[in-house]
Amino acid sequence: MNLFKRAWWRLTAHLGKTVMLVGLFFVICTLVLSGFLIQSAAARAAESAKNSVGAVATMQLDLNALIDSGKMQQGSGGTPGMIGAEGDLHRSLVDKICTSSVVASCNYMKDGVAAPTDQVKLHQPVPAPAGQDSGGVDFFKADGIRDLDAVKDFRNGDSKIVAGSGIEPDSRSDMVVIEERVAKDNHLEVGDKVELNANIQNPDGRLSTKETDFVIGGIYRNNTADTGTYVPPMMAPSNQIYVTPDGATRLDGKKVGADGGVIKEATFTLRDPGDLGRLKQDAEAAGADLRIFPLTVNDKQYKTLVGPINKTADFASVTVWLVAVAGTVILALIIASNLRERRKEMGVLLSLGEKKPKLLGQHLVEVVACAVLAIGFAAGASQFLSQAIGDQLLSGEVSAANEQAANEAGKPDPSDPTGGANRSDEPEVEPIDSMDIRTGPADIAKVGATGLGIAALATLVPGARVLRLNPRDILTKGD
Amino acid sequence: MATSLTGPGASASAGSPVLELKGLTRSYESGNRRRTVLKGVDHAFEAGRMYAIVGPSGSGKSTLLSLASGLDSPTAGTVRFRGEDIAKLGLGRYRNRHAATVFQSLNLLTYMTAVQNITSAMEITGVKGPRKQRAVELLDLLGVEKQDRNRRTLQLSGGQQQRVAIARALACEVDVLFADEPTGALDQETAAGIIEVFQKLAHDDGKCVIVVTHSREVAQASDEVLQLKRGRLT
Q1: Where are the transmembrane segments (chain A) (predicted)?
Q2: Which CATH superfamily is domain B46-62+90-233 in?
Q3: What is the ipTM of this complex?
Q4: Per residue in A404-441, is it b (16+ CB within 10 Å) or e — as a string?
């Protein structure tokens, strides 16, 4: 193919111009590739952050919304001013929502208490000081849950199973999981049958207890050590036990199924923090009244982690576009000026009967050859350059985020439906402050496509205009 | 010069009309003015003959050459190559296969060497065979020194460039060779050599050679002299 030979001869004959074109392409490709690498690094960081903190949507009763809706204890013989059935969140509804494709796992919780028995006593390393009342909290805090792994302490790693297994959706209904200090104090092991006292509210208002059978299915360890001072038993992490939702119903002194599967709250771990909208749609489709049982995501951790790196990626994205557009324009102008200089050459070739597309092809080959060289150089240089640029940009964004966080410390978080009550439950996280820049084949392919696209646009747009002329016009112009 | 200038199998049948101009008219718009440079030119050119087109500056010689060589299209009339309208044949195809032009301003590709200019043209026009060898032969025949063959043409003298331009046209093995003032920039001796080359092309190789010239020597060496005056052949 003669056009390739001509392109090669031209490139080698005008070495200065060739080097200049390669240099310009190198700058463009390096900046574009750096932008892509920063974007990929940010995407990887966001994915990793997503996996580490996840995003948990919580569904629970909004009492104010219920009052505003006027659905509290309407008719049906209930006590006026009581919450009533309209405020009950049912397991059956949550089970339907759990089937949504955006939900990775879900859980629900029915809170309750269990009174100790001779067989299962509370763990109390420091007894109450003489004369001090326990304040009526000499109970185990017994939460009925669907999936122990989805409980925040287990998700965060503050608690972990050390013997047996955790509660799962298909666990036997009389299973109980206790903390290892309680197990040790009471010489209990996995598989032991135990009795816990259910608290029963009698019609006359008096509390009585009823022995309820459970089987120890698992023993867990909570990382919080005992304090050296007296702590009311129910407040001590060691006295937290977990039962199934049916177990919690029985500890309420009710028969399984008699309460209609009412729970306190449900949590849904989303595959992506951005899927809340879709979850809401699915929840409404399942029959949930989201005004009374709103779904909220506390994705503050996720935002804190990825906020600065995402801003850096956004900046990189804008840079990629700006450089690509500016690069195309600059190159197009240079090539247009080149083509003007080479009108005579084109006229000569046309006079020999060379086809116009081949003429344009020669220019394209020349520009693409420069682009390919530049892409090769850029692939080598971008790893270091984008690391430096990315770290610099990210460090600025992290400082800004930390400053903003310091300014906002103490202010209520509008995304927290509990009004800050749960704030201490979320572990503090620091924004991601380093970038893991990796040049992969996909990045090279992307910058290759961009570079070649720029080369094609910058050549064909001005080239098309010149090639409309006929050889006589070209050869006589300026003569 | 015993060797054929245009290579093997490149001759046309001498004596037959190869190129016909019929009612050839060319006008140019300039603002609101319309200037007609050629006015209904008719002529038939035969293979195996050398033609000189002479006339004062502005008489339309170069325009006639552009139209006949397929570099431009007429406003009216036709150029027929072996009876076929070159517009229908395709101007690019006509230039590629049947016509070659030696320009007044040489128009060599300056980033190529003399040999590369010739082999490139041969590739474009589809000439088969050992191109480089043929290029060297032609340059040798036209007196281009050995050391100049592989130099970029920008580094060659005007006379050397003219020789290279002619060698390039000859290398394309076409039926009609056009030349626009080919000896204008050459010394007398070189010009005589070039004229001899054109004569051999016409008489020995059966080509149709059409030369636009102001040179009396070229006109005298031609088989037919056509005078162009105010856009008409006389």
Answers
A1: 315-336, 364-385
A2: P-loop containing nucleotide triphosphate hydrolases (3.40.50.300)
A3: 0.78
A4: eeeeeeeeeeeebbeeeeeeeebeeeebbeebebebee
